[in-house]
Structure prediction request, 226 residues.
Amino acid sequence: MAQPTKNREIQVQKPAQSLAHFQTKLGKGEEEDGALLKPILIGVAAVVLMGVAYGAWSAYQTQATEKHEAALSALQMEVEGDGVTPVPPAEVEKRMREKLGRLETLAAEAPSSRKAATAGLLASWRLALDGKDQAPAKAQDAWGRIRLAQRALALGQAQAARAQLDELRAKATPGEPWAEAFWASQMDADRLAGDRTQALKDLAEYKARFKGRGDASAFEGLIQSI
Prediction:
């Protein structure tokens, strides 16, 4: 009778040992899975946070650009009028002097995408008023032409501005650092001339060339004022 009892004890002990081994192995597996899963979750969380931060920054930049363009457009309309009723040059000069401080503030606070164009407009105002920031009578480069065009715009001379810009149109692509300033000046010339048809053509050409790389919302808002 002793022998069967011993066999039974051995048979009972073996499964118990196997169960303990399985539980230990299972615990180790869970620890390994947890160790692998943790950095994955951290990485996913980091990507999500970066996406949220980028989206918030893009929205802020867009809002800042729209706000700047609206303020700049309002200032130019106060100086140059609505483009329908011509403003005498003497009155334009008087208004420019009164509002020069506002333009200086806008130039200092301009978003990076509009800083060059706003600085160019400020230079043209100073040139027209006091002869500061002298521009050559005949521009030698694209920036010079744009500055002369902006000077003409500040004086209410839409056709003179267009004449300065015409030779730059073919090269005004995203690869040129002055391209944004060119299109902003071109749209201002269209507005000053009251030429809505040409403004719509220029907007379509701008969108076709830049295809999402430029902000057309400011130009669309400007066209609504024509």
